[in-house]
Amino acid sequence: MAGLALLLIILGCVAFQYSKGSFVRSFGIFATSIISVIIAFNYFEVLGGVVLSRSDQSSSITPWAQPLAFLLIFIVSFGICQTIAAQLLDKNVKLGTIADKIGRSFLGLFIGLIFGGVILVVLDMSPLSSNLPYERFSKTNINPDNPEKVFLNGDGFVAGWVSLASKGSLSGKKSFAAIHPEFINSSFLNRICFSKTVSITTSANALDVPRKDGVWPAPDDVKNAESPQQPVNVKSGHRLIIVRLGIKKSMLAKIGSFSLSQLRVICKNQSQAESPLTGSSITAFAKGYMQSADLLKTQKLSDIITIKKDDITESTKWIDFVFEVPNGYVPAIVQFKQNFIAELAKMSEPDQAPAITPFQTDTETSPLDSSD
């Protein structure tokens, strides 16, 4: 259905540009739509954060803050840029009739792909059922490495283009490709377990992130808590890295229950670790958490963790989450739910690693149905 809707948007734009447009006008719409997408991707978190900071976590507007901010910024930016473009572009420039029609129809194809992609991105971030606007991941076996894509991949096109531009011609102090690699995947995984008890947003100060001794390699003798006699199964070319995060007792109401699909670390190549906000990155999701000094409690990405106030004896409950990270990469940024992001401490050497903080809790498997 999403693919058909995208195709209709594209065909509509092509038909409109063919019958009503001109090559110059079509080029102006194409250029301003690209500029507007870049602006929307770079500033939707700022505007969404303003709304979230002034909203109660239980408010109905809260989960819609970022997607609506993205849409609003795109519309306003497009309107402003289009007005400027209309004044600057010379409407008297004319090509041959055939060349003009072919050119503006070709541009109409990309205009439709951008507009359709923007709509899909907004829906990707919205608190909808996991199969809307399309089912990107299997409900029975979530595999972040094997996402399904909508026909023509409109959302991937706009997000991928912005990522490419942010680490190239538009690179700066902060790169979208570095902070939000695999943005569409993360958006779907963040809300795939969305329900009345599992929110897609949280407080911007939800987690406590150590500035030292917060990241280190997992012990070589780590075992699977389900089968203590067996070593943990690790993908070829990967290693297990522990990232210590603190659940603040004062923030429990805003954190609520969460799934491991909502917790991810952004990893940088070791040669680029000193510049975590620039260049490009990859995403790694939690494999589980340390149950004891040498036991890893593995979890599915759809497993839901609920921490109660009684589980926190002090102000913060520290949990040593374990991530499967490709060799040659180190965790640099942690992201939780839709709007928490923080830089991580530099990775400690194995001989300087802190003692494991054991953690145990009951988990439940989400039905992956937002209608609960």
List keywords for this structure.
alpha+beta, elongated, 2 domains, disordered C terminus, 372 residues
In words, what does this structure look like?
With 372 residues, the chain is α+β, with helices and mostly antiparallel strands. It folds into two domains: 2-126 and 145-181, no CATH class; 207-365, no CATH class. Helix content is 36%, strand content 20%. The protein is built from eight helices and 14 strands. It has helices at residues 2-20, 23-53, 65-88, 97-125, 154-166, 176-179, 183-191, 252-255; strands spanning 207-208, 215-217, 223-224, 227-231, 238-248, 258-259, 263-269, 282-290, 295-298, 303-305, 316-326, 329-336, 340-343, 363-365. The strands form two sheets. Strands 1, 2, 3, 4, 5, 7, 8, 9, 11, 12 and 13 form an eleven-stranded mixed beta sheet that branches. A three-stranded antiparallel beta sheet has the order 6-10-14, with no helix packed on it. Strand 3 (223-224) and strand 4 (227-231) form a beta hairpin. The model is unreliable at 368-372 (pLDDT under 50).
